[in-house]
Specification:
The protein is mainly α and 285 residues long. The chain is built from 16 helices and no strands. It has two domains: 63 residues; 215 residues, MetI-like (MetI-like fold). Helix content is 75%, strand content 0%. The termini are far apart.
Length: 285
């Protein structure tokens, strides 16, 4: 009897957990579903009550006008390229610098190692808004306004990235590194051929977070960028909102276009979260 009661309680608790997870998924997916369905409708259908969740067809003028822009100059394509260059560059160098720094802090013993790590972690306590104005003044004095360098350089160093890579690499087996050194491999070879491939989950996570942070960044580009040719996607969206007030379908289409690179990046790198390909390749090496 006691065993049967415990079995029913376990099933009930599992059912409650599943209900909570389903409810959370629904809350997350409803705004995305609205964005995608609304982008395929004329504005008049979006404002109908009750809302028609299934479009009658794809209203392609929404996407065409979103790419064409409010002034018909197709500046969206240039702004999307700017965002790809900035976000891609920041993600690449953030992963590289964080992996190198995290590897050094995790696997090399030197005097003051813990102090260096704590100082790096302390910078996470400083909000970006506190250093935004001094950073802007430095960028202005260096002539970095309205340039890719001005959008990229301030974000190459990432304290969270160092923390993530260090914590991941602490658990990496020292025996593999020692065996590689005995075989005559240098530290650069060990890092590039063994450590980095084995850090797939951490690298994928950091790349997604760094790319998303810059892809969604609005405040810093708003300060640094003046010309329309150097604006990024968030600035394009704010400009479009300021100049076109009524067509919600076009706005949803622009939002879908702006979301596609992040969706593609996540789907491309998501396999590293659930696989052990990196560690397998490292042990084989």
């Amino acid at each position: 009897m006691h065993k049967t009661r415990s079995w029913y309680l376990g099933k009930a608790s599992n059912g409650v957990m599943w209900l909570i997870l389903i409810a959370a998924c629904v809350l997350v997916l409803i705004p995305l579903a609205f964005m995608f369905t609304a982008s395929a409708m004329p504005a008049r259908d979006i404002l109908r009550l009750p809302y028609p969740w299934i479009p009658k067809g794809i209203h392609w003028p929404n996407y065409w006008n979103g790419i064409r822009g409010p002034e018909g100059d197709f500046i969206f394509l240039r702004n999307a390229l700017n965002s790809l260059i900035v976000a891609g560059s920041v993600a690449f160098f953030t992963v590289l610098l964080s992996a190198v720094t995290g590897y050094g802090l995790a696997k090399f013993k030197f005097k003051g190692r813990n102090l260096v790590f704590m100082l790096i972690m302390a910078t996470m306590m400083i909000p970006f808004e506190a250093i935004m104005i001094p950073l802007y003044m430095v960028a202005m004095r260096m002539g970095l306004q309205d340039t890719y360098a001005g959008l990229i350089l301030p974000f190459l160093a990432n304290a969270f990235g160092v923390f993530l890579m260090r914590q991941f690499l602490i658990t990496f087996p020292d025996e593999i590194l020692d065996a590689a050194r005995i075989d005559g491999a240098g530290e650069i070879r060990i890092f590039s051929s063994i450590v980095l491939p084995a850090s797939g989950p951490a690298v994928a996570t950091l790349a997604i977070l760094a790319f998303r942070a810059q892809w969604d960044s609005l405040l810093w580009p708003l300060l640094v960028v003046q010309s329309d040719e150097m604006k990024t996607i968030p600035l394009y969206i704010t400009r479009y909102m300021a100049e076109t007030h009524s067509d919600e379908g076009i706005m949803m289409a622009v939002a879908v276009l702006a979301s596609l690179p992040m969706i593609i990046l996540f789907l491309t790198l998501s396999k590293y979260f659930v696989s052990k390909e990196g560690l397998t390749s490292a042990t084989k090496g």
